Fold these 4 entries.
Entry 1:
Amino acid sequence: MAEKLYYKIGEVASLLGEEVSTIRFWADTFPRYVKPERNAKGNRMFHPQDLENIRLIHYLTRVEGLTLDGVARKLEENRDGLDHKRRIVEKLYGIRSRLGELYESI
């Protein structure tokens, strides 16, 4: 997906396979890292950096199984290392998915 200037909350939720309410909750829980702007209608519009931070929060909660307090601590630590690990895991999930599709097509 090409990088956009803003992402609607529904787009963010769809990209991560989460409910809109979860994205809203994470944005409210981690305002230091997720700072969506509001459009004229009052809808949240997420910057690409917000999207990356939400992806990291998603990874820490869903893959690593951390609590919200654990996520907050991790976000304060080595962010570059966490983001690198998250990207690797996402690539591995993508490979796994493609392999499953190939297996089913045989």
Entry 2:
Amino acid sequence: MLKLYKFLTDISHPALISLLNRRQNNGKELPERIEERKGIPSKKRPETSLVWVHAASVGEAQAVLVLINLLLRYNEKLHILVTTGTITSAELMKEKLPDRAFHQFYPLDYMNWVERFLEYWQPDFILWMESEIWPNMLQTINSHNIPTVLINAKLSNSSFRNWKFIKNTARTLLSSFSLILTQTQKDAERFKILGAKNVRYTDNLKYSAKALPACDTDFKALLGSIGNRPIWLYASTHNGEEALACRVHQTLKNSIPDILTIIIPRHPERGKSIQSEINTYKLSSILRNETKQLPDYETDIYIANTLGELGLFYRATPIACIGRSFSNDGGGGHNPIEAAQLNCAILHGKHVQNLQEIYDEIGNANASIQVNTEQELVNTISDLLNDKNKLQKYQANALKFSQDKEAVIEKVWSSLLPLLENSGIIEPHKLANMK
């Protein structure tokens, strides 16, 4: 199977070039950095030790920041290369990465590009977030004998079923990892069934991510524009969910005439098309845009189509419905922990299969509410806005749940330390001196 994959990717060069061109034309690649996707660097490699951290997209990149800061704290000469595959995550890294950490785009899994990438960067240690399995890259890493750890690893039901059909291939690829740290006990069991060695359950690293930041000036301005209006937020929305928010707003407006709905699209570039859709419901809307326009009293729906401001809006609203749980693409859910950390009562639909374990845990802690239908969503928002005690209870439960989970980073760190010490990334005597 791996030989077939390598053969197919070896002859895929024209198709991959075409793919990159289409992505660039569609605004999914940065023209000035497109060569990075071919393994061609845009930065000089530091002369000191280098740890490579790969995080597929925004959620993983946000979660791994706490680990990056720890590594840099315990080795003052260390540099960290962070790769992701999306423009949004690159923007986040540009804003959030500390000194001695820098970003590059991950190369596509074409052997020449993979080898070029590794030959240039020559990482001393590799950390991969979650479960991106790229065969050519993993086999090349293995041939270079670079210590590699898969952290926050997960296997969905469908992925597990698919890998079981090619179990020998899975075993070969997973052998590239010196250690696998999983999000759940079930994930650990699944990786072991596929033949992985040295697997440990450490819980979800996203629980340890710092609360999303907010500009104090912007926060005060937003609160001033909202005033005493009752509000709710629909965060990280996908296609179909903006229309749902409009219908919910129309119904709520019958009993709560001054209600304000805030929509934060997962992909901010959809802002104008979302506003056009809102217009068909005869609702007034304002786009925040980069000029940071604010809603006025006549605004029905405020579209927060900016990057890096989710923390601002979670702080401003007591109720957050988490996106991609009602979307037209079958859903899957986005991370509810960020909202919980900022004292929001959390609502979500039933299609949260991509993060099912997190939603099961937060639901069992009575720290979120699952709503299965549009009418249930209307009723729940109305109920919470009209019952302050109930609203405050769900806010407090969500905050406590997130606080109780903050120690996950300690489990991950203690599991990584032996490998980091053996690789010379962390020196034991410095570790002792800094405790």
Entry 3:
Amino acid sequence: MADKWDERKKAQEDEYFVKKERELLAKLKATQEAENKAAGKNVAHMTCPKCGQPLKARSFQKIEIDQCTGCNGIWLDPGEIEQVAGKENDSWLGRFWQKNG
């Protein structure tokens, strides 16, 4: 009898924590959407093409690039590779771009 009581109690605890996690995830998602909307970003296109996690805008040499919050990949919008390569003339990227650009 005590085992059944413990099983029911455990199941209730599990349900409670699942409910709380869902509420927290929904709140976090709403907060992120509000932040993205305030920043004027389209949430639908601001996900990592590799892993699907949200992208976060960051500055690299005064160029706004997007970095994945999951896999830390860097994603560039059209024209940004030229901007980065132009500022990196002495680096391997700048030399590559000059040869092949």
Entry 4:
Amino acid sequence: MKIPIRNLYYLFLYAWDRFPGGALTSAGLDDSPDLPNLLARLLSSGTKRLVRRGLDRDYRAFTEELVSPRGRLRLDRMAKETTKLRGTVVCDIDELSHDVLHNQILKSTLSSLGRSPEVEKATRHELRALASRFPDVLDIRVSGGLFRRIAVSRNNREYAFLMRICEFLFWSLMPDQNGAEVRFQRILEDETKMSSVFEKFLRSFYQIHRPEYRVRAEAPAWHVSDATEADLALLPRMITDITLRGRDRTIIVDAKFYRAALAPSPFGERVRSQHLYQLITYLQHERARRDGGTVVGMLLYPQVGRQLRLQYRLLGIPTIVATVDLGQDWQSVEAELHQLIDICGEYRQPIVDGREQVL
């Protein structure tokens, strides 16, 4: 799938909550030949700003044996270790330090990316030089679970975007056989990881640009009867990618980043059945809960090959299978995304005898 570097840039900015007003014009976007160099430049540019304004600090607790008391005395350890004979005391100390988790992750990512041969030499040098600006921060081995422990507040919100980049890089970089360098996986071909980015991009885009809808991911309850609480607890969770709720309609969008929107079959290409079944389940439960208004569903893929604008009524519910061309200029991408929601907005439930009729 060929996506221009500028469009990838905007895709990540939306997905990682950097819009509106978050364009990093100093990141050397147009000079980046590919995704590894784009991410490297974004990380370098953001880290430079952090260093200029001062790295975040927090209190770190540690225990130390000292000649002069400082902090809280640990009488239990002093008695146990007979420190009086040595003329020392054991103290618990809280001290402001740069050695906090988000700085540790940032330093480790700068060092790892600085060893990647896919990144241009000058940028690699920049990344390694920036890592050296963290002398009092420990070098750690980054794991996926660490990102769930990061606490970003209003005081250190500049770290939020950088931590998103670091997490994406963590899942994208693999050590080579010798362990001396790291190499990028073909991340744009990873349908699972890119589906998550594509979904977040669409949700953020519609939150910003379609204010007439309340846009979010939802976890609707199953519309079920004759079941005990124990039985209900074993049902899987339903989580929509994007639900747009307006005054008189609900649009449920399922976003998939697949290299081919249609699946091959012995009888020719077909809509992917598992995606359609999942969307129809969401739509049926939504219709069962609503007293009125229109329910519309859409399966949305990035365009590879021909454009899709398939329109059906499945169980009486308007359903669209569509693609968006991420390879065109960005203004056209935005226009196409608006057009798709406008199409969903044109559907009305048929009215019979003054009441909405489900076909």
